[in-house]
Design a protein that fits this description.
The chain has 2 domains: 168 residues, FAD/NAD(P)-binding domain; 169 residues, D-Amino Acid Oxidase, Chain A, domain 2, CATH 3.30.9.10. Helix content is 25%, strand content 26%. It is built from 10 helices and 19 strands. The longest helix is centred in the N-terminal third of the chain and has 18 residues. The chain is globular, with a radius of gyration of 21 Å. The model has no long low-confidence stretch (mean pLDDT 96).
């Protein structure tokens, strides 16, 4: 049996980044995944993910987002692949909104984070939003925040790049191999899969929506998995207005109890549509039980409630859909901490619907944690203890 310094279980956003960061340091590392990432069965797919530097979930996330941008640029240089596009982000809210993304005061926290970290931004009133971005049907009482450094990343391409470079640096990668259990052994930890057993000095569990299945009930109760739907609506007739050069990524806290929406420009040309989604937290699910189809009623409701009233240039024809999974905690914060019962095991769940933008830097921080190295990032806010308070 080969023995490794570290095993990384789950090779999605955080896992692929961690594997890459360990391998590039010459660590003997094994990556395990029950599927063959990048794939469409978890949380890291759908072509694009929003990235922003002023973080409405808390200013303490901003250093991770900044460093992730740097790492993605390094990966682009190493692979010749386009991963990060920064053409600006528009965030809209109103004092009358009864909804806030991810459980907090998203808009004012975004502005505070920008000011605290000297991130270039502009504040806009409703009239200025419409003048600058006529694609958005904003009202006079709405307010906007525009960040030039915001944009989108390509999640599948990021994972592929990091796994490829990790393997080139010497990492072992085993795909289509389901982990059944883990246990501590003398001087390390053992992971048993449906195929074999593997020993290492440290284990990082970054299993995304499969994480609760690997934890005892006392820890699994902190994580809930929800089905989310992504939609691409037709904008061919107005494509020029929805091109990335003219249409920013957006997050919109809607007035009058409508909830919130977020979306992207038409990144795949006139026939690709523009991507838009909302968030739902009504019923939990699992990766095995989730409904992966999207009904006509869901599509009609999405257009009627969240597309037509706010984007007059978008058509009602839905070009395609995708289903992904959010693994959330009660405060929408991450968990990156040592397992309270197994000190050689690190649990990494930087999810809750806003994780990918931080994933590259978190891989670096998790690698430091696994190796006992000092890190420039403070992971204190991501501990298990806060969830029991």
């Amino acid at each position: 049996m080969a023995r490794y310094d570290v095993i990384v279980l789950g090779l999605g956003a955080a896992g692929s980044a961690t594997l890459y960061q360990l391998a590039r340091r010459g660590v003997r590392v094994l990556g395990l995944d029950r599927h063959a990432p990048p794939h469409t069965l978890g949380s890291t797919h759908g072509d694009t993910r929003i990235t922003r530097l002023a973080i409405g979930e808390g200013a303490h996330y901003t250093p991770l987002a900044v460093r992730s941008h740097e790492i993605w640029r390094e990966l682009e240089e190493a692979t010749g692949t386009t991963l990060l596009t920064t053409r600006g982000g528009l965030f809209i809210s109103t004092t009358a909104s009864r909804y806030s993304f991810h459980g907090g005061s998203f808009f004012p926290t975004t502005v505070a984070a920008a000011r605290a970290h000297n991130i270039e931004h502009e504040l806009l009133d409703g009239q200025e939003i419409r003048r600058r971005f006529p694609q958005f049907q904003a009202d006079d009482h709405e307010i906007g925040y525009f960040e030039k450094s915001a944009g989108f990343v390509r999640p599948e391409a990021c994972i592929k790049a990091q796994l490829g470079l990790a393997e080139f640096a010497g990492a072992d990668i085993r795909c289509n191999e389901t982990a059944l259990r883990f246990e501590e052994i003398d001087g390390g930890v053992r992971v048993t899969t449906a195929v074999a057993s593997y020993d290492a000095g440290q284990l990082v569990i970054a299993a995304g929506p499969w994480l609760p299945q690997l934890l005892a009930p006392g820890l699994a109760r902190h994580f809930r998995v929800y089905r989310q739907v992504l939609y691409w609506f037709d904008v061919e007739a107005q494509y020029d207005s929805f091109r990335p050069e003219r249409f920013p990524i957006f997050i919109w806290e809607l007035p009058d109890g409508h909830g919130g929406i977020y979306g992207f420009p038409a990144v795949d040309g006139p026939k690709g549509g523009f991507k838009i989604a909302t968030e739902h937290y009504e019923a939990t699910t699992t990766p095995e039980d989730v409904e992966r189809g999207v009904s006509r009623d869901e599509i009609s409701h999405m257009y009627r409630e969240n597309v037509g009233p706010f984007f007059p240039g978008a058509g009602s024809r839905c070009i395609r859909t995708a289903v992904c999974l959010y693994t959330t905690t009660r405060d929408f914060g991450f968990v990156v901490d040592r397992h309270p019962d197994f000190r050689r095991v690190i649990v990494a769940s930087p999810c809750s619907g806003h994780g990918f933008k931080h994933s590259a830097a978190l891989g670096e921080a998790i690698a430091d944690l696994a190796l006992g190295a000092s890190s420039p990032f403070d992971l204190g806010a991501f501990g298990f203890a806060r969830l029991d308070r």
